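Dear Dr. H.,

I hope your travels went smoothly. While you were away I took the liberty of generating a structure for the chain from your last submission, since the lab meeting agenda had it listed for discussion. I wanted you to have the full record in hand beforehand rather than looking at slides cold. The sequence, exactly as received, is reproduced here:
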Amino acid sequence: IGVLEVDIDRKGRVSGLRTEFRQPFGDGGAFFLRPALELRSESLPLMSESLEQLAEYRVVRRGASLEAGFSPVPSWRVAASLVAGKDKGQRVIGDPAAFPTQEETYAGVRVGATFDTLDSVSFPTTGLRADIEYLSLQPWGDANVEGDVARISVDWAHSWERYHLLLGGRLASALDPGVNYQSQTFLGGFLNLSGFGERSLVGNQAALARAVLYRRVGDTTRIFAMPMFVGGSLEAGNAWSARDQVDIGAMVVGGSLFTGFST
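The corresponding predicted structure, in token form, is as follows:
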């Protein structure tokens, strides 16, 4: 399967072009190879501990990967990939002396596993999804950044008739003190610290916990009724530059009231 994907958000903060090819093989196509190329441009804000913006970069990312994976059943997938690319950050806001243009070349290995039984991407009513990823950046070729990053995310859904509860959490940690673009994790946006701008919090360490309660409304007996949901969320989390700055007492709280349609 070949995929060409264009991603442009309405604020112009993130835009990109990605193409990949997935080739299954083995009994039932349980094994697969997936090479991919990506060009991506995104805004990277730099915030103080008091959440005041100090600067902003426009980061252009160019990357390639070759992934090999095994998916014995639809709910399970394990994969490992070779990754390489270049990230260039151009300062657009901030003091030129304090925030110079930066360019990084990286290479390494990414391994991960996914378990997913959620019955919907947008408004799940039952199931569990867990993602675990480990990225190891190595000084191969002309790569000039090193370090290891671990990330885990979990979402669990449960229902009582028309009421649905989604509980979730994310943890991300750069295991080495060095800071680079690949080691950073973003927070901010709807259900990801609602009330903050999309991807407005960034750091080498990040934590997020959330609870989302929503109810389907309208006439559910109609064959062609579009599912409509109303609900609210409560979220807590933060992002930090280094592990010695991580402070549970510094978690910031966000929340939302929303109406949504499953189209």
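Two observations you may find useful: DSSP finds no helices and 15 strands in the chain. The CA atoms of residues 189 and 197 lie 5 Å apart.

With kind regards,
E. W.
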